[in-house]
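Lecture 7, part B: from sequences to assemblies.

Below are the input chains for today's worked example.
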Amino acid sequence: MPTREGTSALLLAGAVFLLATNLASGLLFVLDALLVSLLFVGAATAHVPLRRLRVEQQAPARGVEGVPLPVEITLESPRGGRFFVVECGWSGARARALVPHAVPGVRATISLTVVPPVRGRFALEPVTVASRGPLGLFAASRKFPANGGVTIWPRTRPVPSGVMAHLIPVLEGGSSGARTRQAEDLYGVRDYRWGDNPAHIHWRSSARRGALVVREFERPVTPGAAIVVDLDSRQSPEQLDAVVRAAASLFQAALDREADVVLTGWEEGVVQHRGREPAMDWLAGVTPCSPPVAEVLPKLAASGRHLIVVAANTGSEAWLGESWPGGSRPAGGSWPEGVTPVLPAVRVAGASAGVGTASGLVYMEDGTVQAW
Amino acid sequence: MVGWRRLVATGAPEHSVPLRLWTLASVVVSIMAVTAHDDFLEHRLIVPTLVAAGFMFSYWRRGKRNWWVKLILAALCLQVGWQFLRDVYSNPFHTSVPLTVLLLWLQTLHSFDVPARRDLLFSLLSSVILMAVAAAFGRDMTYLLYLVPYALAAVHVLVHNSWQAAVEAAVPPGRAPGIATGAAAGWPTRGISGPAAGPRLQGMMPAANHLLIMVLLVAGVVFTLTPRYEGVRLVTLPFSPQRLLLDFFAGRIFNPAYPGGGDDGASQSLWNPRGYFGFGTTVDLRMRGRLDETVVMRVRSTHQFNWRALVFDTYTGSGWKISDNRVYEAEGRFPPISLAHRQDEILRYGVRPIRVTQSFFIEAEQPNVVFAAPVAESLYLSTARVYLDRYGAIRLSSTLPPGTVYSVVSRALIPDPGRLRGAQGEIPADLRARYLALPQIPGRVRDLALRLVADQPTAYDRVASVNRHLWAEYRYDLTIPPQRRPGDAVDYFLFEERRGYCEQFASAMVVLLRAAEIPARLVTGYAPGTLNPLTGLYEVRNSDAHAWVEVFFPGVGWVEFEPTPGFPDTATLGAPALRRWVWQDVAELLRARLQALAARSPAAARVLEAASVLAQGALWAGIALAGVLAVAGTRLIVGSRQASEMPGGGLGEIYRRMCAMLARRGWRRAPSETVEEFRQRVEASGPMPEVARLSALVEASVYGQEEPGAEVLAEARRHLDALGARLRKGHGPSR
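Predicted structure of the full complex, as structure tokens:
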């Protein structure tokens, strides 16, 4: 397509041709030929270099919202070319760069920086290479398909120390104090090894086998914590994003303390993720799709873990038995059956997500801490 | 209020100095091209100087509030416009000059307010308009001296503009353009020419210069292939503004090249190579000499004709004279001047005449006669008086100095031989008396005439017979010595010298026709000249001064004939001046030149004939060679395309050697066959693990992410060697 300058040149060429014809002036025909040749050369130099252009895109598989993500684009043009504008990215996050001159036959690599504004799972959009050519009379572009996608994790913030102080006991499992000895369950038998307790020798099995075997026991594990992400479908996308970021921040803090913590929620069933990558990958793609957390909490509690519920929907407080700011007490407020009230579920104030306890602190999205 | 703000608001200021400098260069060159014309010489120094100052001022004031500048410029524009209106009012026939002056001053004023890139582009646009004006005024090739540097400047402007636009397009919204640098902004880190950091224009100058060469070459092709149609003449015909309005000659003829030439022609004048002796009251056939090649005029015409000046009706034996110098006056102050011809020019056209529009641009002083295609009907020239004689010649009240421009509209007669053969009727008595009269001429001249016209059924055939005789039996030669004996000049030419000037040929034809009772007369003027394919103008030189014949056919009128070999046959006259395609004009120019050369020199004619035969052979050889090259080129392109699918470096070479090896055994890989398809075809005859493995390596290299390493190459060579050994032992499957 002609650019604005190209359109002007086209109109000029036509006007000069008419003038030349009317005046029968050979010199005007010469000038007209010059204008037409500028158009021809401009069109050719804009379109031809894109013809056999090869483009490859390499983007990281994951990123974090708000954190610049480098994307490498490799171009190779057998005919060379000038003034390529390369654009890549995905929906809502695009980056452009200028390639002044691609040397013929040489692979040129450029690094673009895409700043993802939101979390999510995105398919990489085709790389667009546009060129006006060196004369700028025509604009041409070509799209190169991109394979793959990118997962953008929610951004995290350091959890305030006051909040962590409330959560550490839960994250590390059990209340403060010395550990109590707990009963062990029989797991099986195995061959005797030097150092095993003779009291554990299973004589009957040893006689049958003709060699010493000892009982092997399974140590019951104190259940860790589960951070519940409220995916209540009634909440707005902004509320969900705040919940997700808070949950991610808390999860990261827990992992930093090497706590046994999982991230869980309800998406047509209980979903649970352990480990940073699977958890963050899951958080990247969550949408408000579940019933109120109060309804699904019994199912979530079945894991036996301590629940740290991160919720933004104030309708969730229906099952909470604590006093709320403002003094009101929701009707029927009591823990649902089956939920282990190790750590009461929490609510958040207003539209911001927060994590806290019923008698503790709420920390806001902007990092401040409010007394509750 | 918002509208006012938009009016005075400027776009983002343009900081690029190279863009500004190249734009200034293009504007200055266009101004110089326009002011090369005489009418604008006075602006040649002041306007470019002011434009340069304006560009500097604009650069200094870019990005600042310039509302006061715009006010001043608006006032000056009004002043310039007012001056334009006054100039047009004082001379409404010549609006092109004041219009061009207006354009020059508007461009000058605009140069003081070009803060943004769009303003610079507007300057470029107006410079194109100025170049168009310069082309319209231009009459010779000096325009090209401005066009090439203009093209250079314009290409650089476009390149810099495109660069700036690309830089802006690459900057994300919300960021200041032109600031981003470094790899973080996406500048290439590898494989890009020039520094990797920063938006610098490394290599732009050579690239722009290469583009210029490409543009000029393509422009040459486009110019050659641009069709030229007939215009509709929406503007008035050009002519000079009012010049001297005094009447010096009162209808007499004055030839500045022969100021002492008397009306009786008794004394022979001294030869002047800078002027034709035939533009006087007499034509002296004793004159000897060669006219120089000075361009005396340039002619723009819709059709090709001889430019007729004077007619001579009385043969004296040694020359010609105009017997009747009575003239009719016509007022010449207010063009166009209608020319009402009388007496001998009363014609009855048997065919529809064509309208011929001509504009003459005088380059060297000419006699006080109007040169034009016959028969002139309207004259566009501001002069005191115009005089018409009985022969249709137009005399002026002053000579035509250099720089004079005048236009003529003629109604020309182009009869075909069939129409002329059918011409019937009585010749008017006065025409018979005047145009059949001859002095005492030798009998052999009459005998020759009667012999030539014998057995010719019609008057036209008789005329053609005489014409052919002169073409075939006599030679055009400018080196003839003076007549070695006194006597009739035509007789001497026909029977003794047998070579001569166009005056001798024309005189001979007129005398022979009159002897055969066919009215004829001698006409002088200029031959059409040489068409310049670039300017579209006929360049008429002193050496194009010419004499030819007009013959009267009852019921038709006066018809031109060309008796001199090497000059354009009158049958070719009347053709459109400009052919549809430029290459046709170029070919015709070459043909005419070669024809004229052959006519003047038998040796040259023989050489040209031999060259023609060689050229024909070379043409066929060229066609054959082109065909061979086309086939070879196609194979090369296809082969290179196929080769481009191969990995570079050693692996591709190894694969090619494998293909060559297999080709010798009968498996030739087709150009359209992929590596996998070829492998399958070869292995259809039997397993060839080396081929399979080598094909796999090639495909992995082509579609993989990395170039083949040393290990891959070593493996490929092993497979190739193994394949070679297998094939040598005859262990491969047979085809």
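Note for the exam: Helices of chain A lie at 4-23, 26-51, 161-172, 203-209, 237-256, 276-285, 293-301. Keep this in mind when comparing with the next example.
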